[in-house]
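hey m, so remember when u said the tokens were messed up on ur end? i reran from scratch. heres the input so u can diff it against urs
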Amino acid sequence: MSEQPQQTILNLQECLALERTTLANERTFLSYSRTAIMIFITGLSVFEFFQGMIVIYVMGWIAIVISTILFFVGLSKYMKRFGSLSHLKSGCLHPYLNKKKGNK
């Protein structure tokens, strides 16, 4: 006989904490993205303003590579945390769904 894991129902305080954590995860991903975009733009602007200088040209390419890596690191962290949070959020029920008719 196999036992199915019971889904725990979280109270309102725990559900709100999960929502805050979800929003913090999104803010963190947006920070990673914003930083990656700024480093990428810096790398591109180096090509435009410092033409003919090999050292600066190489630094521009390094900035572009670092920005790409940074974006994908942020994306992987976001997706990993999003998966674990969505699993936990399945235990949250809307507080008004639990009320019986006639109770206020």
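this time it looks ok to me. The longest helix spans residues 12-49. if urs says something different then somethings off w ur setup not the seq
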